[in-house]
Design a protein that fits this description.
With 431 residues, this protein is an alpha+beta fold. 45% of the residues lie in helices and 8% in strands. A hairpin with an 8-residue loop joins strand 10 (313-317) and strand 11.
Length: 431
């Protein structure tokens, strides 16, 4: 879905539709899998279960009725060039959707480890279905590859992750959902922008209001684009005069390819590779801000790097800390994160694309005995780090770059591998 608030929107949709493939509802809106903007933050996946409602007291309540808000927004939309007939048809029968409000105001307490997320994302069923669709749509995918330079296996992997190959696209009216969020959501300015973008889609004539359906956060179609992303990157690949990401798999896949191309996808380059690290390796180098040429990683003793452009720059990713698998990820991984800024999602796309191409999966063992921190525990960890002077940033339960930096500093003070991984053991040491 491209990026809704980029971590909320994707979770809910994937969680419901893809059997707990939750990285979305604004993972693009409900994910705790955050990754620092270019490349990685946390590899923990939020589950849609055991959700704790957020107190309404923490949200600014609307000071006007929905009807008054709609009237004001109508004037703004018309001033922005939206035709009155288009607006009125789009808003016919629209009222605030309480299910959208509940989804927007809830935060998951418990999290899913990255390995469980990947187990589900790369299921045998999904792989078989994806391989069948690769064969079925071979000519279309070849044409898309030739035009945009994006690997067909990666495209089909995104198709599978976003909507289970078009089977689960969301059943919410995009106009109603975004209007609800613009009226009283947590990020009204963002929803406001997307609502105007959705009206422009309708005015362009690509889809009728009744067919413009998607997730509670406004992600649409087989590739789960938000409206602004649609307006910028959606293409009419099947030549019928409409950019139809709902009913045309060719348009949906080509639109995703166009988006990845513009996000920096490098034709012929892998997304990344699983590697092994030497004894005594400095795990603090596993930092999203540290990008080194492949040649330098080799000099540091990183093993199992296949023949590649030695000048290509890569980030070392340890999604489960130093006791789990290690990956070097390149520019194409960064392009995937533009689609969904979650390291777990990026890994899922990369590994699923490999599985679709009959490549082996992850070789190193995951630390499956580890218990993941819940949201309240992550907040406690941040508070304890701050109390000890490590500056983890806001105590919000999101393990971002500042928190990882603080964790590394604390680990170094204990003489432990400074991998920045917020384990339950680390929390116990802080207490």
């Amino acid at each position: 879905m491209h990026m809704l608030y980029p971590s909320l929107l994707r979770c809910t949709l994937l969680g419901t539709s893809l059997s707990l493939l939750t990285a979305c509802a604004d993972n693009h809106a409900a994910s705790q899998v955050d990754t620092p903007t270019p490349v990685v933050q946390s590899a923990t996946i939020s589950l849609p279960t055991a959700v704790s409602p957020v107190s309404t007291a923490t949200f600014e309540q609307p000071t006007q009725s929905f009807a008054s808000w709609q009237a004001a927004f109508r004037q703004e939309a018309l001033s922005a060039g939206i035709q009155a007939a288009v607006f009125d048809a789009a808003f016919a029968g629209v009222s605030p959707d309480m299910a959208v409000i509940r989804a927007d105001r809830s935060q998951p307490e418990f999290t899913r480890p990255v390995w469980e997320y990947l187990d589900s994302a790369i299921s045998a069923t999904r792989v078989r279905r994806g391989q069948a669709l690769l064969a079925e749509h071979a000519s279309t995918l070849q044409a898309i590859e030739q035009r945009y330079g994006v690997d067909r296996h990666a495209l089909v992997a995104i198709w599978g992750m976003e909507s289970n190959f078009g089977q689960y696209m969301g059943d919410k009216s995009v106009i109603a959902a975004l209007a609800t969020l613009a009226y009283e959501g947590r990020r009204p300015a963002f929803a406001h922008e997307q609502l105007l973008a959705a009206l422009r889609i309708l005015q362009h004539g690509d889809v009728q209001p009744s067919r413009m359906r998607g997730s509670w956060a406004g992600a649409m179609g087989q590739t789960q684009f938000i409206p602004s992303t649609y307006n910028q990157f959606a293409v009419d690949f099947d030549g019928d005069g409409r950019r139809d990401i709902w009913d045309s798999s060719a348009d949906a896949l080509a639109s995703a390819a166009h988006y990845l191309q513009k996000s920096g996808w490098q034709s012929g380059q892998p997304w990344g590779v699983e590697v092994t690290l030497p004894s005594g390796f400095d795990y603090a180098l596993a930092d999203a801000e540290i990008r080194k040429p492949i040649s330098e990683w080799r000099q540091l003793g990183v093993n199992n790097i296949p023949a590649a452009d030695d000048q290509a720059r890569a980030v070392l990713l340890l999604p489960a800390g130093h006791r789990g698998p290690a990956f070097l990820v390149l520019d194409n991984f960064r392009a995937i994160l533009k689609y969904n800024n979650s390291t777990a999602y990026g890994l899922a796309i990369g590994l699923l694309s490999g599985a679709l191409d009959s490549q082996p999966g992850v070789q190193a063992a995951w630390p499956r005995s580890d218990r993941q921190l819940g949201r309240s525990e992550r907040i406690e960890l941040q508070e304890l780090l701050a109390s000890k002077g490590y500056a983890p940033g806001a105590a919000d339960g999101i393990i971002g770059a500042n928190t990882r930096k603080a964790v590394r500093a604390f680990q170094q003070s204990l003489g432990q591998p400074a991998d920045g991984y917020p384990s339950h053991e680390l929390l116990q040491q802080l207490r």
